Amino acid sequence: MKFNYQAGNGWQSDSQEFDDRGQQFGDGLFETVRLDGHGVAPLWQMHIERLALGLKALRFSDAAVELVLHAVDSIAHPPGMTACKLLVTRGVGLRGYGFSPDLMPLVTVRYFNAPEFSTSPYVAGTSDVVLSTQPLLAGHKHLNRLEQVLARDSFDAEWNECIMLDSSGIVIEGCMSNVFVKLDGRWLTPEITSSGINGVVRRWLLDTNPEINVQNFGLPELNSAQGLIFTNSLVGIRSCHIFDSQTLDVAPEAKRWQLAYQEMFE
Amino acid sequence: MKFNYQAGNGWQSDSQEFDDRGQQFGDGLFETVRLDGHGVAPLWQMHIERLALGLKALRFSDAAVELVLHAVDSIAHPPGMTACKLLVTRGVGLRGYGFSPDLMPLVTVRYFNAPEFSTSPYVAGTSDVVLSTQPLLAGHKHLNRLEQVLARDSFDAEWNECIMLDSSGIVIEGCMSNVFVKLDGRWLTPEITSSGINGVVRRWLLDTNPEINVQNFGLPELNSAQGLIFTNSLVGIRSCHIFDSQTLDVAPEAKRWQLAYQEMFE
């Protein structure tokens, strides 16, 4: 089920104009939201906050941010659907990178059913795609995702996820998720200030577990970890038990967090 | 005037599906091509070569590359139009970053009239947007262009172009063009191996003027340059006479190259 909403002008047909700046330049943002059985998104507020931060980082005007958030908030959740993807673009512009602040943004919503929750642990490896460093875009779920497309395409056949590093060897994230590691009894997650997406499950875990530290680490640490988890709005929290062909323990905290996340959607 | 061509399936309507991977992830490439009065593109072969290299870098299958190049080559040039933008995406995929090699790529062509050639020199400055480093994508005219969108938006009112640096201070390109500088009597242009687009006018200038060197340089050199030019398929070759509020000479070679470029379109 798909709907388009041109902020300010209401719902439209289910296709975009060629000249939409999402298609031309990846000039926009997205959110992938898990809903409960009643069509309610338990972490909706965090999605909206991240979207608003992203719109500001992409220099949408205050008026455009307001239009977009109003459009997004007016979305009717169809019963039975358990996930949606929101896609916000700067709208249909003239030729060239420049844009007028009064462009009408386009909000598109796509409903689908989220995968069933699973507790089976992941097999993961290290991606050969090195993430670039761009503090102006770090944290935001923008539409420039070619690095993830290339990383996903170079998965080994048995992988469920991969670890992506930046050029200084810092672990940033998974291709489709954020990453948390238990080292010397402490849980850490990378800073996400120069690369990567600040995921909603990441934020929820940090909010609900203040003992987790935001601190960078490298690849060598992962091989001696007492726990490694990947987090993603749709699949929730998944432990990794085989990383780069080495076996890792599944930490008890991971199971607890996994259940706490899943319970929100019951 | 707009046409869509789904490679292999012929021409379609003038809008894209929401699920097109161009819109979702910036998963595609573009070419902006200047045509002469007969609808012929003098540098067509260079555009096609760059597009083919980009498709391979984005891991389009050999079969997909062939389909795209056939579609692009079958484009009828409408008389009177002097420019076109080709946009190639990986096509309509399922949810997620992964893709099947047998996805049907989408080629979209948009005709418009190029700006009249002008010899008036540019005013330029230095962008505060630092380009990220990604050798896997460098050189290719892909659809992940948020850095250029941000750079264009931070132009001073009097600028025609800007210089963009990488994080090590190397000059990479202009926001919309490649850059050439004359230092100690020698013309240089940056390598474009870790960031930036390998422009068609850049390649034409290097091919026709073997005395130009491909060599990196920094910002300090620009202030003592004996010439600074920006190159772009649509506007051709433009000298810069005011850079960061300092006056620069307009080099005689620049005028000669400018005319040689323009003559191809007569």
TrEMBL record, chains A, B:
Entries under SUPFAM superfamilies matching the protein = D-aminoacid aminotransferase-like PLP-dependent enzymes (SSF56752)
On the tree of life, the source organism's domain of life is Bacteria
Family note? Belongs to the class-IV pyridoxal-phosphate-dependent aminotransferase family.
Q: How is the quaternary structure described?
A: Homodimer.
List the NCBIfam families. pabC_Proteo
Task: Kindly state which reaction or reactions the protein catalyses.
Answer: L-isoleucine + 2-oxoglutarate = (S)-3-methyl-2-oxopentanoate + L-glutamate; 4-amino-4-deoxychorismate = 4-aminobenzoate + pyruvate + H(+); L-valine + 2-oxoglutarate = 3-methyl-2-oxobutanoate + L-glutamate; L-leucine + 2-oxoglutarate = 4-methyl-2-oxopentanoate + L-glutamate
Pathway listed: Amino-acid biosynthesis; L-valine biosynthesis; L-valine from pyruvate: step 4/4; Cofactor biosynthesis; tetrahydrofolate biosynthesis; 4-aminobenzoate from chorismate: step 2/2; Amino-acid biosynthesis; L-isoleucine biosynthesis; L-isoleucine from 2-oxobutanoate: step 4/4; Amino-acid biosynthesis; L-leucine biosynthesis; L-leucine from 3-methyl-2-oxobutanoate: step 4/4
What's a Gene Ontology MF term here?
branched-chain-amino-acid transaminase activity
Pfam families recorded: Aminotran_4
Q: Give the protein's function.
A: Acts on leucine, isoleucine and valine.
Q: What Gene3D superfamilies does the annotation carry?
A: 3.30.470.10, D-amino Acid Aminotransferase, subunit A, domain 2
* The keyword Methyltransferase is assigned to this record: no
Native organism = Thalassolituus maritimus
Q: Please state the Enzyme Commission number of this protein.
A: 4.1.3.38
Keyword list, A-Z: Folate biosynthesis, Lyase, Pyridoxal phosphate
Protein name as catalogued: Aminodeoxychorismate lyase
Q: What class of enzyme is it?
A: lyase
The record's section on InterPro entries has: Aminodeoxychorismate_lyase_IV, Aminotrans_IV, Aminotransferase-like, BCAT-like_C, BCAT-like_N, Class-IV_PLP-Dep_Aminotrnsfr
**GO biological process, alphabetically ordered:** 4-aminobenzoate biosynthetic process; folic acid biosynthetic process
Known cofactor(s): pyridoxal 5'-phosphate
